[in-house]
Amino acid sequence: MESFSLILAIVVVTALAFDFTNGFHDTANAMATTISTGALKPKVAVAMSAVLNLVGAFLSVEVANTISKGLVDETGIRPEVIFAALVGAILWNLLTWLVGLPSSSSHALMGGLIGATIASAGTGAVHGDVLVTKVLLPAVAAPIVAGVAAMLATRLSYTLGRKADGKAAAKGYRTGQIASAGLVSLAHGTNDAQKTMGIITLALVAGGAVAPDSDPPTWVILSAGLAIALGTYIGGWRIIRTMGKGLTELEPQQGFSAQTSAATAILASSHLGFSLSTTHVVSGSVMGAGLGRKGGVVRWSTATRMFVAWGLTLPAAALVGALAESVTGLGDWGTGVVAVFLIASSAAIWKISRREVVDASNVNEHEEPAGVVTTAIAVVAPPPAGQLVDDLTATIASPAPEPVAPAAPPAAAV
After folding, report:
1. Distance CA 96, CA 37 (A)
2. Does the keyword Cytoplasm apply (predicted)?
3. pLDDT tens across 369-410, in order?
4. How far is the C-alpha of 302 from the C-alpha of 369, rounded, in Å?
5. Is the pLDDT assigned to residue 273 strictly greater than 70?
6. Rounded to an integer, what distance in angstroms lies between the CA atom of residue 126 and that of residue 107?
7. Distance between CA 258 and CA 255 in Å, rounded?
8. Cα–Cα distance measured from residue 338 to residue 173, given in angstroms and rounded to the nearest whole number
9. In this predicted model, what pLDDT tens digit does every residue of 282-334 receive, in sequence order?
C-alpha cells in the first residue's frame, strides 16, 4: 500500500508539472497577438491571462470527463500507465517550446495516454469512436472554421472602418483586442486546464481513491487551475514570438478578429465536451486574419513547420508514452528510471534554451524569414494606399541642376 500511495503521489505531481508546461506552452494562444500589436505590455498580458485561466478552470468539467471517462477504459488502467503518458506529453511540450513551435499540449497528452494504454492493455482499451469524434475531427475542423471566420471578420472590420479616423479606430480595436484576449484566456481555462483534471481523476480512479465515473474533486480542479495559471504567468516567450510575429504581421483589427473567432470556437467546443486543441484554433484564426487584410500574407514556411509538428504530436507522444510504460512495467525501479530520465531530459532542454534567451524584453524584436511563397506574393501584391507616391519619389531621382558658367574675372583697372 505504501508503494502504491507513492506512485499515486508521483502521478499527481507529474500531472501538475505537465499542467505547468501546458500553461507556458499555450500563453501565446491568448496573448501573442495582443503583445505583437502593442495592445498590452508583455508582463501585463501574461498576468491577465494567468488569472483568467484560473477562473476558467472552474466553469466546466465536460472536457475533463471526456479524458477521464471517455478516451480509454478506466477500469484497466494502472497509475504507472498514466505516469508514462505524462512523460511523453511533457517531453514533447518542452521540445516544441525549445524550437518555438506552437504544437498542441492537448494532443501531446492524449497521444501519451493512448500509447501508454496500448502498451499496457492493448488497442481494445482505447475507445476509437471517442478518439475520432471528439479528438481527431475537431483537430481538423476547428482551425479551418476559426480561420475562415477570422478572415471574414477581418475583411468586415476593414470595410466598416474604411472611413473612420485611423488613430481612433486603432485605439478602439486595441481595446476590443484586450477584451477578446481575456475571453481566449478564459476559454483556455475551460478547455486545457480540464485535461489535467481528467488525467488526475483517471489516476485516482485507477488507484482506488475515488469511485469510477466520478467528476474531478474540488482539490483537483483548484490545483490544476493554479498550475496552469502559474505556467501562463511564466510566459512561453519563444512561442509567443512565433505566433505573434512569425506567422504574419497583424494590425489591431486583425488581432481583434483572430482572438474573437478563436474564443468563440473554443468556448463552443468546451460546452460540447470536445477535447479541442486551442493551439490549432488560435493558429488557424491568426492565419485567417493575415489573409483577410488586403496585401497581407502568411509566412507559409513557418506555417508548414507548424503543420508538421501538429501531425507528429500524437504519434510522437504516443511512442514515448509506450516506451515509458514498457520500462515502468518492470517494477518500482523501472518507474524510478523513467522519473530520472524525465528530470534529466527536462534539465538538458532548459540548459540548451539558455543559449538564446527569449523573454518579455525581446519577444517582439525578431523577424522570421519571409520564405519563397511570401516573397513572391509580396512582389505582385499592390502596395497600400498612399505608399505608391512615396515609393516613386524615393526611386525616381530628381534631375541634376544645370551647370553654372564661372563668372568672368573683373576687368583690370586702368
Report:
1. 24
2. no
3. 444 434 443 444 444 444 444 444 444 445 555 555 555 555
4. 9
5. no
6. 15
7. 5
8. 49
9. 888 888 888 888 776 777 777 888 888 888 898 999 999 999 999 988 888 88
Q: Which grid coordinates belong to 380? A: 505582385
What pLDDT is attached to residue 387?
44
Q: In angstroms, how far apart are the furthest CA atoms of the chain? A: 129
Q: How would you class 222 by CB atoms within 10 Å of its CB: exposed for 0-12, middle for 13-18, buried for 19 or more? A: middle
Distance CA 87, CA 18 (A): 8
Q: Comparing C-alpha atoms, which of 336, 252, 389, 278 is closest to residue 49?
A: 278
Backbone phi, psi, residue 126, to 5°: -100, 130
- For the four alpha carbons of 285, 68, 316 and 5, in that order, the dihedral sign comes to positive
Phi and psi torsions of 87, nearest 5°: -60, -45
- Write phi, then psi, for 66 (nearest 5 degrees): -60, -40
Q: Is residue 213 classed as helix, strand or coil in its secondary structure?
A: coil
* Average pLDDT along the chain: 77
pLDDT at 386: 46
Distance CA 290, CA 298 (A): 6
Residue 248 DSSP one-character state: -
DSSP tag of 356? S
Query: What is residue 244's predicted lDDT score, i.e. its pLDDT?
Result: 63
Grid cell of 239 as nine digits: 512561442
Report the candidate in 270, 308, 228, 258 with the shortest Cα–Cα distance to residue 19.
Answer: 228
* β-strand partners of 72: 126
DSSP state of 147: H
DSSP state, residue 126? B
